[in-house]
Amino acid sequence: MLEPGNSSELPAIPGKRYFTIGEVSELCGVKPHVLRYWEQEFPQLKPVKRRGNRRYYQRRDVLIIRQIRSLLYEEGFTIGGARQRLTGEEAREDLNQSQQIVKQIRMELEEILKILRR
Known about the structure:
Blueprint: H1 21-28, H2 32-41, E1 48-50, E2 54-56, H3 59-74, H4 79-117
Antiparallel strand pairs: 1-2
């Protein structure tokens, strides 16, 4: 396992759809009990649970875990600060995505208006 202060390179994420908690633990350099705790603290982290309550993480989850790890261990954030930072980033992404959708709809409506004016 990587120590909290160790900024060694993490291994590449394989091209799989689902990862077990053990695989994610190795990919992200944190122990499984830490991952379970982070699930309670970060609402963005929602692994799929299947038979026997086994957790299956997706690539998106692994990326979020790596981001959480970086915020906590390398940048020195508290759990609450890291949670706020992630929530803020989600809000910016949602706003950006909404703006792109509005632009696209506006362009389509202008095209329709041109057609109707003919």
